[in-house]
TrEMBL record, chains A, B:
PANTHER family: BIFUNCTIONAL OLIGORIBONUCLEASE AND PAP PHOSPHATASE NRNA. GO terms for molecular function: nucleic acid binding. Residues 21-162 form the DDH domain. It comes from the Bacteria. This is Bifunctional oligoribonuclease/PAP phosphatase NrnA. Residues 239-321 form the DHHA1 domain. The lineage of its organism: Bacteria, Bacillati, Bacillota, Bacilli, Bacillales. Pfam families: DHH, DHHA1. Signal peptide: none annotated.
Length: 325, 325
């Protein structure tokens, strides 16, 4: 379960031997991406190195409490004037995930690729990939410990944020003994774990709660109670003032009903297109269902964009899920 | 933060020196009460002791997966024929919390009182009280370790259940480094942490989700957005088939809205009585508000039963919260 020691040594050498790094993460950065960017920045500042932290776009406002979060440059607002020979990519499963940041990679730039996705294709000159880690933050926790650098509350808060968000608050199946031991150690550095849980996992905006209510009002169950679904129309979005990101998590409500095997959210995009998100309790491979409609995903979480009107599409998808049950 | 060693020694002596124990917990047992009862039973079985586990009423059906959960006797269904000289009370802050189980305590029974509530008044002959523990399960984790007994998956699952439920899934302010370290160790014994999180923290019944929807449809905010509330009528309960326990957690929805300082749930009991539950984000002492209506509770979670009709009561309570803001 530990991160590979040779890879840790190579990563350390990359950081020690070079200077003037570009630190990047994936497009539309989540908690782990932001936290890992900042943890690498913190590590480089401990080593007295120069570095620039960037992202293709803005980081979520909710994460502005993080140490130096305001120093991650939003390239869509503030393009850089130079390119970098040494780049550190965190939490990017493949090279394309870095998005527009690649414009600032020098030709033949040396890349240190730090990631936990099992599908990572080792695109770096140096790769520190640990597919069993719950988050890239967990790998950075290992790297900092390996390098013998003492944590501070700032970096501990960033690392805890990465663990918390990528494990869904220590609830997903990636919540290993090692994750909990790391969380325990991070709390000892003064991290406000409960405060972070509230901010990142429990807080809702008013439009978010209103659009959730709209969806729940349309909750339907199959006759045998094994399939549950809700839907959202463009009118719901306008009336509640909700943005697309406010729909995150809604699909879990039908999915979490006792007895439901597959929960779904149908989002009407326009008169002739619907986006469906599917979540499985384990029995049904929803990736297969999504693929049959031209979509994709994982066994327990998948999605597809389907042409047609809402009523027809709901009927078709429910029928196809039933076949799998 | 560790449990007091002299108290651990005394508790161990109590278990070693006697036999034929009655193990009881509090009325309307929650996750920690059930888990602690079973963990004590497991410990006694390791010591080769005779014991009887009881509760005043039934244990929640959701917890039937726990080792020997079916051996906790529901005294309302199956009264005992005898009384016990040696009683172990777990998770009971005061003697009255044991409810009807006390009918089976022999006169001058010796009581071992194991609990984590700061208000525990040390009613036992022997007291093992650790107010900084997140759960009674945490104290039992210490006791089992102190006694040098190797954990098994069965008891680890019970202890994890107690930690998980009493910390709200490692989110409340009692989530200490020690809790996370204990959780890490318990997972090493094969506990299905993610499965327990899903079952105990995420799963909803259909009536639960429907009554939540009814409540959310009535969401209101004060003009400045610092107070949010929902309400439930007897008609809502009938229409959705919800029971009182299905209302648990609903008050957190208004409370979790960004900017809200006080969230409230008004439950109409009859034409002339309403029960209000209040939750504070920290600024307002809702216990004081509840007390001013003859209720009580904690600084961040309180409640009261108020005579009057819903509209009047909402107005009064909102006004009284405003004064505190």
């Amino acid at each position: 379960m530990q991160t590979n020691e040779q890879e840790l040594r190579d990563a350390q050498a990359f950081l020690m031997e070079h200077d003037d790094f570009l630190v990047v993460s994936h497009v539309q950065p989540d908690g782990d991406a932001v936290s890992s960017t900042l943890a690498v920045g913190w590590l480089l500042s401990c080593l007295g190195k120069n570095y620039t932290m960037v992202n293709e776009g803005p980081i979520p406002r909710r994460m502005s409490y993080l140490w130096h979060a305001d120093q991650i440059i939003d390239l869509s607002e503030n393009p850089l004037e130079t390119t970098y020979k040494h780049v550190i990519c965190v939490d990017c499963a493949d090279f394309q995930r870095v998005g527009q940041t690649q414009k600032y990679f020098a030709e033949k730039a040396h890349i240190l690729n730090i990631d936990h996705h099992p599908t990572n294709d080792a695109y770096g000159s140096v790769n520190l990939i640990h597919p069993k880690a719950a988050a890239t933050a967990e790998i950075l926790f290992d790297l900092i410990e390996f390098m013998g650098i003492e944590l501070t509350e700032d970096v501990a808060t960033a690392l805890y944020t990465g663990l918390l968000t990528d494990t869904g608050g220590f609830r997903y199946s990636n919540t290993t003994p090692k994750v909990m031991a790391a969380a325990s150690k991070l709390l000892q550095y003064g991290v406000d774990g409960p405060g972070l849980s509230e901010l990142l996992l429990e807080q809702l905006t008013y439009p978010q709660l209103r659009v959730l209510t709209k969806a729940l009002n349309k909750l339907q169950l199959s006759e045998d109670g094994t399939i549950g679904w809700v839907s959202i129309t463009p009118e719901d979005m306008i009336e509640t003032g909700a943005a697309n990101e406010d729909l995150e998590g809604i699909v879990n409500y039908p999915r979490n009903i006792q007895g439901v095997e597959v929960g779904m959210l149908f989002k009407v995009i326009n008169d002739n297109a619907v986006k469906v998100s599917l979540r499985s309790a384990g029995k049904v491979d929803v990736a297969a269902v999504a693929q049959s409609f031209g979509g994709g995903g994982h066994v327990r979480a998948a999605g597809a964009r389907i042409e047609g009107n809402l009523e027809q599409i709901i009927k078709q998808v429910v029928e196809r899920v039933k076949v799998q049950l």
